[in-house]
Amino acid sequence: MPSPKRLVSLARYLIIPAGLIVITIWLLNTPPGLLGKLDGIGYAVCHRIPERSFHVEGRPLPLCARCSGMYLGAMIALIYQSIVSPYHQKFPRWPIAIPLILFAVAFGIDGANSYLYLIKSVSSGPLTQIPNLYIPNNTLRLFTGAGMGLGLSALLYPAFNQTVWNQPDDRPALTWKDLITLVGLIVIVNLLILTESPLILYPAAFVSAGGVVVLLTMVYTIVWIMLMGEENRFVHLRQLWLALLAGLTIAWLQILLIDLFRFWLTGTWGPIPLS
User: Fold this and answer.
1) What's the angle, vertex CA 92, arms to CA 90 and CA 93, rounded to 5?
2) Which SS3 state, helix, strand or coil, does residue 63 take?
3) 3-state secondary structure of 211
4) Which residues fall within 8 angstroms of residue 100, CB to CB, at 6 or more apart?
């Protein structure tokens, strides 16, 4: 079996062409235009139903309201933590974890209620007899999604630091002050999105779609480093380029495969057909 050093050496030659091939195939097989490419990213992770999405100049955003909130919330939290808590590796303490768990519960309840409402509107059956807790709406989808995104970042950011850095900072990556600040920032961003101004929605489209790539890249970078046996060997960000490129390549391969399978299954780049 090849040694980890040999695998890393081999990866240096294979990862760059592999990444170029995967991204080129994706670019050639997704809708044209910059917004079309963002739609191609959203297509891999989101149903993209227009009625459940915000619109900019008559065009749905690449991700539905819930997914937009989730990836925007995650990106805001990741950027904040990388500035305020660089290299911090500890998960949030239990008192701070409680509101994060409540955010996840709210996400689940609103998602289930929204799904039930959708099923009742397009089909008949025993589920139609179950009453909805409330009429779902995009405002609730946006806010519950953002809470879930904050929770995801609170787990992923310290997990990344624990795996990567040779000398991580042995402090929590999220404190009460950080949590309160992030909740405030996310509320402000969400309120701006609810204005549905193109000046807000266009950047939100890019950040939310980019959030899909960033989160997947971080996850697969962690996996790659563990497979290569390189945990806690990195001191500077520049040393991480190969692992990040590998994570990005695997992330984009996942997006490509899901895109191709969904298009083969549905024959459209539009939302998931409801009937």
Assistant:
1) 105
2) coil
3) helix
4) 92, 150, 151, 154, 179
Total domains present in the chain: 1
Which residues, at least 6 apart from 125, have a Cβ–Cβ distance to it below 8 Å? 119
DSSP character at residue 56: E
Ramachandran quadrant class, 48 (left: phi over 0; alpha: psi -120 to 50; beta: rest): left
Q: Quote the pTM value.
A: 0.92
Q: Domain range holding 213?
A: 4-106+137-266
Assigned token pair, 211: 């959030």
Record the tokens describing residue 172, joined without a space: 């929590």
Helix or strand holding residue 220 (H, E): helix 198-227
The 8-class DSSP code of residue 165 comes to B
Alpha-carbon span 120 to 101, nearest angstrom: 29
Q: Tokens for 201?
A: 């929605």
d(CA 202, CA 181): 24
179-232 residue pLDDT tens: 999 999 999 999 999 999 999 999 999 999 999 999 999 999 999 999 888 899
In a domain, 127, yes or no: no
| 198 assigned to some structural domain | yes
Going 245 to 24 to 61 to 133, the CA torsion angle's sign is negative
Q: Is residue 271 part of a domain?
A: no
